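Recap from last week: sequence in, structure out.
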Amino acid sequence: MSHPTRSGRKWRKALRQARDATEWLLVLLALSTILAGQPPYGDLNFRAAAVAREHTFGATEWEIGAVAFKLRAGFLGLYGYLDEPAKTDLLLSYMELTRRHNDIQWQITRIYADPSVADPETESANLQTRLNETRALMSELQAAAEATIESRVSVILAGQGLGILGGILPPVSMHFSPIPRLLVLSPRDEIRFAAAVLIDPDISLEEIEALEAEAEAELDMSALVVPIAGLSLYPALVLESGDLAQAYEVAAHEWTHHYLDLFPLGASYNTSDQMRTINESVAGIVGEEVAWLVMQRYHPDLAGMMSPPEWLSAEAEPEQAEQTNEPVGFDFAWEMHRTRRMVDILLAAGRISEAETYMERRRRFFWEHGFVFRKMNQAFFAFYGGYQASGTWAVGEDVIGSAVRELRRESENLAEFLARVRWITSPDELPTPQESGDR
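Predicted structure tokens:
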């Protein structure tokens, strides 16, 4: 029999070694993520970063803080003893606090934006106190909320055939945080995702407008600063929205990018617009499906408000041919698709100014029907056209989203689906829906 004290020392030494190994793994993953995102000197991303230098998001600082947070939370291990109902209660409490925090923040923003308020700092003092108190309560629950989301997403991924040696590789890791924005650039004479720069989340609307104008003037490009819900740093950066299903979805979406980075598809992300679209469509499908399955399993009382992804429905039919007759009433997807197609036609004919005038007119048309877009330009369609998991409202003749959804429909589970797409390095390797059906 081993001596108790000696045995305890061995276990403590083994724990320290495991902790040290995990720390290095997380640091290396974080550093590789940062370095992989550094643009070469002189290219468009570099020049865009120079234009936006006063407002760029500090990814390095964020990574250091997020990794330190995850290490502290992981090795303290304060929440492993909780049962699932307790974890659910804690997670729902965190989400409620997040929604309360966002509501208070919006009230403060409105006070500062109100020209009739002479002293917004004094006027919002009580709200600021409430905001700080709410943030403190969120901080107490954040580590447990993140761990719960990570573990549940991992359980679903394992159930879909993606488990390896009792775990998920790479491990699901996410961190709630104020989300950066993205400065997107597209050529004016075509819709193409040409470059992007992460922008500090605290940038004001006036600064956004000035930054877009400067980027367009300096780079002769169409520019737009857009909001995002997540970012595939490691751990993944997830928006503090207070939306439970969205949190699961973004965590799974960004994990998919981490997973694909180990394969040719992920490594080819930045080689073309089409490869970006394939990557985002795959991640969108995984995120949406995992979120729905998590809600079904762990939140059945809330899951009834969600519809299953169309590829999981037994009644789902293969996607129909493009609608050619104008629908009755206002149909957002049809109207936006119609807008994109007309813009493509005008740009192909070299009628750039006419296309830009048309987009502004259509933006006002959407506003009249309750859809608010601050700006609609080539960069708008270049960004939103890359997300085709659940539809093609911002897409012209591109059929990538349809082909990817058809591949998921034909796959038994997510593991088979990812195995079919992860080796793709060119859009030509992605079968059309008709071709995939013959396999």
